[in-house]
Design goal:
Number of helices: 8
Shape: globular
Order of helices and strands: HHHHHHHEEH
Strand content: under 5%
Distance between the termini: 53 Å
Largest sheet: 2 strands, antiparallel
Number of domains: 1
Number of strands: 2
Low-confidence stretches: none
């Protein structure tokens, strides 16, 4: 990074393995995997093996493939990972997710098939900005990485849909939409803005200078809090479900 500014608050210093850590977007990946767990916990019974398999599939599809494809499309994280390695990661991640999904159909049934089809489509359509970027919007992000994981997590457990997961998907949509509303200006400040000038004049006459840190702080504090709190909520719900009746 020429100006020493990290492209994201979770980005590591440039380096061969550190670039891969940055590529995984750790807090955001954990956040979206939490929706899988929350959807699973809404079912009347949680099969631990199915939950683990669903989490691994989404890690491969979102944590690896989606982020590798996104980096290949414009280098937003400024990593030094080669284009070839990013293509391999994209293909391998989607392939692994589909393989796990096919195995899941054998255990769960045909109800999982639509999710097996839609999932890879969303990875490619969103991150490659296909169809003129029609899917690559705030609403597309919230549906793809919020609602969809939660619904998939539920169906993988219950073999059907119900009112509760639909309501949960609406909540996941709203949380992901809020994430996007916070992360978009934060990314712009880190990656596109050369400098910030200005000040805030308070009613008592106090003048507070505006700089990049002042603008970033509330955005990234909120992102930090939302990411870890969603993970904690998912862990609490799954723990309660798995220990129920013991």
């Amino acid at each position: 990074m020429p100006d020493g500014r990290r492209p994201a608050f979770y980005a590591a210093r440039p380096g061969r393995w550190r670039d891969w850590w940055t590529l995984l977007h750790p807090p955001y990946t954990a956040w979206h995997l939490s929706y899988v767990a929350i959807g699973s916990a809404l079912a009347s019974h949680v099969d631990g093996l199915r939950l683990l398999a669903t989490e691994i599939a989404f890690f491969c599809a979102v944590g690896v493939s989606a982020h590798a494809l996104d980096e290949l499309h414009g280098r937003p994280l400024q990593t030094r990972i080669s284009d070839g390695a990013l293509r391999v990661a994209t293909t391998a991640g989607v392939s692994a997710a589909v393989a796990i999904g096919i195995a899941g159909v054998a255990r769960v049934g045909a109800a999982l098939v639509p999710f097996l089809v839609v999932g890879p489509f969303l990875v490619v359509a969103y991150n490659a900005e296909l169809f003129g970027g029609y899917v690559h919007t705030d609403a597309g992000f919230a549906a793809a990485w919020g609602s969809f994981p939660l619904l998939t997590g539920y169906v993988a457990q219950a073999r059907t849909l119900a009112v509760a997961p639909v309501l949960g998907a609406a909540a996941a949509f709203a949380l992901s939409y809020a994430q996007r509303a916070l992360s978009t200006p934060a990314r712009r400040l880190r990656r596109q803005v050369r400098g910030v000038e200005g000040s805030l004049t308070l009613k008592d006459g106090t003048v507070q200078p505006l700089d990049e840190a002042t603008l970033l702080m509330p955005l990234e504090r909120a992102l930090h809090a939302l990411s870890w709190s969603t993970v904690a909520l998912a862990a609490a719900l799954v723990t309660a479900r798995l220990t129920q009746g013991r």
